[in-house]
Design brief:
This protein is an alpha+beta fold. It has two helices and five strands; from the N terminus they run αββαβββ. Strands 2-1-5-4-3 form a five-stranded antiparallel β-sheet, with helices on both faces. β1 and β2 form a beta hairpin. It is globular, with a radius of gyration of 13 Å.
Length: about 100
């Protein structure tokens, strides 16, 4: 599993504009991060709640559908959330121009 996590980190770090990457276990506990601890914990708590609610919304709209990703853009950053069975991957990046 550790090799898989390292591969995920390498893949996303190679993208331009990436500020940080957080990998959470299914219980929203950070497994690996490139961001400082305080920010990691804040993202983990908020994103986990968002992912759970978004997944429920998608399922309520169509029981045969599932949430694949969430993309949020703010004035400062873009946050991409990739939930899966084993991990929740959070990629924070500077928005492209």
């Amino acid at each position: 599993m550790s090799a898989e996590i390292e591969e995920i980190l390498k893949r996303y770090q190679s993208y331009p504009n990436v500020v940080g990457i957080i990998i959470l276990d299914p219980f929203a506990i950070p497994i690996k991060t490139t961001m400082d601890y305080t920010l990691t914990v804040q993202y983990a708590a908020v994103v986990n709640t968002l992912a759970i609610k978004a997944a429920k919304m998608v399922t309520n709209l169509d029981a045969n559908n599932e949430l694949l990703n969430i993309r949020l853009r703010t004035k400062v950053h873009e946050v991409i959330v990739l939930p899966s069975e084993n991990y929740i991957i959070i990629v924070v990046q500077n928005p492209g121009t």
